Amino acid sequence: VNIYLTKPYTKERLTDILDRVIEKRQKRLCVPITSGKEIHLIDLYQIMYIESRNHNAHIYLKSGKNMKTQFLAIFICHGTA
What we know:
alpha+beta, three-stranded antiparallel β-sheet
């Protein structure tokens, strides 16, 4: 879906479009976390903090869940938003 700003435009329309673009981009940021034999794609904005302990990364989420992984990398998800 393309978003266009046509002339003449209002401040409200510009603000609305910028908010939508920012929201779309934020939805696409995720972290692939390998936990056991599974790979979870975690929304970057749901991570509260990451703790390093015993050669593992412990990831604590806003939902109250936590995960443990030996490898942590940040990628941009290539899904549709």
